[in-house]
């Protein structure tokens, strides 16, 4: 089974909260044709997308062409909108979670979904996380790499991570509102440099916080191979050793990095091998960033190119690790998938 864990989706009938609330900070979907649209923010084009971003049938056609059995759907990060009032943020989150759930219902064996929550209000976020998983059947929650500039180890956010730990709900961390964004207006550096740096900062915050000692069942996966984290770990270990006053953990950072999950979206066999050496095969999950330009096509192509991996190890990265992370029983899902096909 091949699962593409990292894909994004948006409703063709996306909420226009900019018009509803008279606030142009909200992302708005402007159709340009039946096959495309622009995501607009403050009257400017944030991103152009094709109908593959909302049309589940087109998505499944691509999956069939590329040999992908299952996609895991998640919101586009710009829609997190943590800056908004909690009540309005909840409105956005509920709309997206309902949409993803209904899309999964159209292709229940080919699609899975993970939702979003208004993380600017922890109580509302926990309540919506429970609704998304328990009522809508979503498999986890996607969260941003920071909340209005607060790193993920901010004390105000800890109750959310405790709830995810206690309820066994997996979290997918995706970069947004990247560190140093004011210095990256040219060369599309926000995507090429900002996002990997932001992801490393988010992962480092979790690792250094002590949460993984307190909440050992917490499941977190970081996008884009953990960004620059794999290459920074030796420096983090050094800092942990020479500055005992900063320690909040029982072990050095590299110990906890092996408890986290990472998608395989690093494009290069040497980088993937480095990740495997750092984290282990069981912590890597194939993901492509479908349907955007920086996607890997097909998902897991770099996994198949890595000659050091056995067939059994490739099988784990391509699908089994995702099922384990999402708390889905392999036997049950494989049977359903084969029956539909």
Describe this structure in words.
It holds the Pfam family Amidohydro_2. InterPro entries: ACMSD, Amidohydro-rel, Metal_Hydrolase. The chain is of the alpha/beta class and 341 residues long. The protein has a single domain, classed as TIM Barrel (Alpha-Beta Barrel), CATH 3.20.20.140. It contains 13 helices and eleven strands. The protein has a five-stranded parallel sheet. It has a three-stranded parallel sheet with strand order 1-5-6. A three-stranded antiparallel sheet has the order 2-3-4, with no helix packed on it. Strand 10 (261-263), helix 10 (269-279) and strand 11 (284-285) form a beta-alpha-beta unit. It is globular.
Report strand order across the widest sheet.
Answer: 7-8-9-10-11
CATH class: Alpha Beta
Number of domains: 1
Largest sheet: 5 strands, parallel
How would you classify the helix and strand content by structural class? alpha/beta
For CATH, the homologous superfamily is named as: Metal-dependent hydrolases
Q: Enumerate how many helices there are, as a single number.
A: 13
Binned, the helix content reads 40-55%
CATH architecture: Alpha-Beta Barrel
Q: Averaging pLDDT over every residue, what do you get?
A: 96
β-strand percent reads 5-15%
How many β-strand runs?
Answer: 11
SSE order, one letter for each helix or strand: EHEEEHEHEHEHEHHEHHEHEHHH
Radius of gyration: 19 Å
The CATH topology assignment is TIM Barrel
Determine the N-to-C terminus distance: 12 Å
Oligomer: single chain
Runs in which pLDDT lies below 50 for 5 or more consecutive residues are none
What is the global morphology?
globular
